[in-house]
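Quick one, tokens below:
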């Protein structure tokens, strides 16, 4: 009997949820970096087989909110937990158990949702250290499965996908067409690809107080294999702007060059004109209008996660000819 369900990937920042999502879906739908709080939005990735449709929700890393941005990120997490059928709690086994991991565990215990524990980054520790971690978590909660894996290397990834499918409800209607991959608008993905390059090249020099806003998205010549994109890299301080621009403009040039290559692949176009500007907007993480524009949703904009509502949305969009049920 066919299966279908919503699966939330939850965990602390930088435990590998986005890498895992990309592996599970089979293509890149979420950017990846080694900086905490890279994921700011709830991202849907869909994997459909002949017998099962798995709708994955990649949520922001669970952390103590400070700025309005962080509060909205945590709202995304709590919203995601309300209507899902299964949780995948992702733990970084290379990090010591602390307050952050305890908070995530308490959240899982309170929800009482069916949960699979994914012990990620086993490639970074010796095998002898895995068993004590398994024993500890086994005493904390009745997990459906406990799977050591490496999202980066793909170890035990297929096993995780099989166990997720096994633990989804039977007889559920498929919520999306079989070819559907993600709910993220193309323009949003463009901004994320650029932001990924900023995070990668600035590393520890620049805190995660940066964002990318696409201001011009000219598709008028797309049929001829060309697009023009203008985006602003938003930073919080003048000193951060100097870092992003780099000496004689070399840093922003490198960011733009690498982003253009990835954008050409993502948009399947031979040529893209990409212009990057760097803007200082002090306190942008606490500005409602800018967060709205960046797509970091507030509690007033909650996407309903019930199967009935999603099915109705999909049917309505398909009837009017839309390719993306979430547009």
């Amino acid at each position: 009997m066919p299966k279908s369900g919503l699966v939330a990937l939850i965990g602390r920042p930088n435990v590998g949820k986005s890498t895992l999502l990309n592996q599970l879906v089979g293509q890149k739908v979420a950017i990846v970096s080694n900086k905490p709080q890279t994921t700011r939005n709830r991202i849907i990735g869909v994997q459909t087989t002949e017998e099962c449709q798995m709708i994955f929700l990649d949520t922001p890393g669970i952390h103590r909110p400070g700025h309005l941005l962080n509060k909205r990120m945590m709202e995304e997490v709590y919203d995601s937990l309300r209507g899902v059928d299964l949780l995948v709690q992702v733990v970084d086994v290379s990090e010591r158990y602390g307050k952050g991991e305890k908070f995530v565990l308490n959240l899982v215990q309170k929800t009482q949702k069916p949960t699979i524990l994914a012990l990620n980054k086993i490639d970074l520790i010796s095998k002898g250290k895995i068993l004590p971690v398994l024993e500890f978590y086994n005493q904390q909660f009745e997990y459906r499965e406990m799977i050591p894996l490496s999202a980066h290397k793909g170890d035990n990834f297929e096993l995780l996908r099989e166990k997720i499918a096994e633990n989804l409800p039977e007889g559920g209607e498929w919520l999306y067409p079989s070819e559907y991959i993600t709910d993220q608008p193309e323009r949003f993905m463009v901004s994320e690809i650029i932001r990924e390059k900023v995070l990668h090249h600035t590393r520890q020099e620049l805190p995660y107080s940066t964002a990318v806003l696409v201001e011009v998205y000219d598709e008028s010549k797309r049929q001829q294999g060309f697009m023009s994109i203008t985006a602003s890299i938003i930073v919080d301080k003048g000193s951060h702007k100097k870092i992003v621009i780099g000496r004689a403009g070399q840093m922003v040039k490198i960011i733009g060059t690498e982003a253009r290559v990835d954008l050409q692949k993502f948009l399947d176009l031979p040529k893209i004109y990409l212009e990057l500007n760097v803007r200082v907007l002090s306190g942008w993480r606490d500005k409602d209008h800018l967060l709205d524009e960046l797509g970091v949703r507030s509690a007033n904009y909650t996407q309903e996660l019930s199967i009935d509502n999603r099915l109705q949305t999909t049917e309505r969009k398909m009837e009017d000819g839309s390719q993306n049920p979430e547009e």
